[in-house]
Amino acid sequence: MLNTEITTSPWFYLLIAASLFLTLTYSWGRRKNKRIFLSAFNGLLAVVNSKDQQFTNIGGIAGYHANIVPKNNTLVRRVDATITLLPRQSLMFMPFSLLVRRFDREEQLQKETFQWGGKTFFMYYSEPWVKKELEKCRSLLGEPQGIRHIAMVPSQDRFWVFMVPRMDTVEGIMAELYPWMVNLLKKRQKAVK
Fold it and tell me: 12 and 72 in one domain?
């Protein structure tokens, strides 16, 4: 019944080995992504001190979104966090994911380039006080660690932080950033009154 021509071919054994390899890398990638997102979200929860939280899976094991309501939410009503991870579970898609990069396009803003932690960063701002606050944030953090992008829209009282979530780093970074954000919101609230 077996087709001996197929089962004795080296291509058959190569296909079996490739299938086994892809299965093992899927398991490894899934576990690694789970460790990263749990570390990131647990660190964020430790800093924000949440009253309520909701987590949503957005893409299998490569993305998650969190809605967190802080206990003391007079200034910060809600913290939204989205984490998108490299598709470590899909060895065939991973090279394409590493090649694709998207950059922000900001217009009508002043732009400055600076070196931070051996990397080139761009600062976009429309008001001098925003530049001053972003520089304060930079000196507060010291090194960028996993930070890739920090943005704030003062008119909407919104902040965005884009970082590479490395194991056990999110809590330390957010422990510095979150109070800075809350303090900035307090200053803005006083200025508006």
Answer: yes
